[in-house]
Amino acid sequence: MVPLGWVGGTLGLIAAAFISLYANTLLARLHETGGIRHTRYRDLAGHIYGRKMYYLTWTLQYINLFMISTGFIILAGQALKAIYTLHNNEASLKLPYCIAITGITCSIFAFGIPHLSALRLWLGVSTFLSCIYIIVAIGLSIHDGLNSPARDYEISSSGSSKRKMFGSIAAAANLVFAFNSGMLPEIQATIKHPSVKNMQKALSLQFTAGIVPFYAVTFIGYWAYGSSTSSYLLNSVHGPKWIKILANAAAFLQTLISLHICASPMYEFLDTKFGRSNESVYSVRNWIVRVVARGTYLTVTTFVGALLPFLGDFINITGAVSVIPLTFVLANHMYIKVRGKDLGSLGKTWHWANVFFFAFLSVIATMAAFRFMVIDSRAYHVFADL
Known about the structure:
This protein is mainly alpha-helical. About 75% of the residues lie in helices and about 0% in strands. It is globular.
C-alpha cells in the first residue's frame, strides 16, 4: 500500500487476487494431464515440455522457496526482536542475533517433523496463532487510527520521481507474492479425488473468504499509519505491552510453521536423495540425514537473512524472480500447450498476451527489486540492525 497509495494499492490488491485465482485455476486444471497426477510442479513441466524444462522449473521453484524461507526467517527474527525490545528497553539484542536464534529454532522444529503430512496438528495451531495476530493487529491499528492526527498517504512521500516509479514497479511483485507460493501442484497432491474439482473449490474459498482477514489487516494498517506503516505492522502499533508481546510471539511461532511448509519440497528432495526409503523416517540413519541436510539448508538461509535483513526487498525479489514466472508465465503457456486445440484463436491470443505481459513484468520488477536491495545495502550495511 505504501508505494501505491489508496487508489493504486486497493486496485492492485483486487487485481492481484483476481489474476492469481485465474492463474492458479489454470494450473489446477492441468494436475491430471495425460491421466497422471503430477505431484510436483517440475513433474508437470517435464511431462509437458521435456527433461530440460523439468530441471529449469525445478531450479526456479527452489530459488523461489529459498527466497520465501529467507523472508520468513527475517520476519520471525523481527518478531523475536520486538518481543525482546518490549521486555528490555535497552534493546541490546540486535536483529542478526534474533535471526540466528530463529534459524536454530526452525532447525529443531524441522528435525522433528519428517514430512508434510506430520504437520496436521500444527496446521490447527498455525490457524490459532494467525487469529491472534490478526485480532491484535486490527484492534491496535483501529485504536491508533482513531487517536492519531491526520496521516500522510502520499505515495512514497520522500524520494525522487525515479524512486517512486521503481517503488511502484517493485510493489507489483509484492502484490503477486502475497497471493501465491509457487507450489500449487505440491499442495494439490495432498487433496483427495477428484483433485481438480476439489482444488478449484479450495481456491474459490481461499480467494473469497480467505483473503478477508488479509485485506482487513492491510487496509486498516495503512489507514492507521499512512505512508509511515512498517513492512512488519506490529512495529507500528501502540498498546499494552503484554498484548504486543502476545501478538509478536504468535507471529514468531506461526512463521516457523509456515516456513516448514514452504521448505517441505526442499526437505523432501534432500530426504529422498540422502535418506533410506526402506527404513522408518525415525530411524537413526534418517534422523542423521535430517539433522545434517536440513540443518545445512537452514544455516545458509539464516546466514543470507542475517546478512541482508531487508524483508520488503526479499518479498519484491521473490515475487519478481520466481513467483511471476511460475504462477503466470508458465501456467498460461502450459495451458496453451495442453489445451490449445480447444481454445480457439481468441483464447490463444489471450493466453499469449498473458505470457508476454507477465514475462515483461517479471523482468522490470526484478530490476526494480534488485535496485532497492542495492540501495538499502548501501544506506545501512550487511548484518544491519533494522
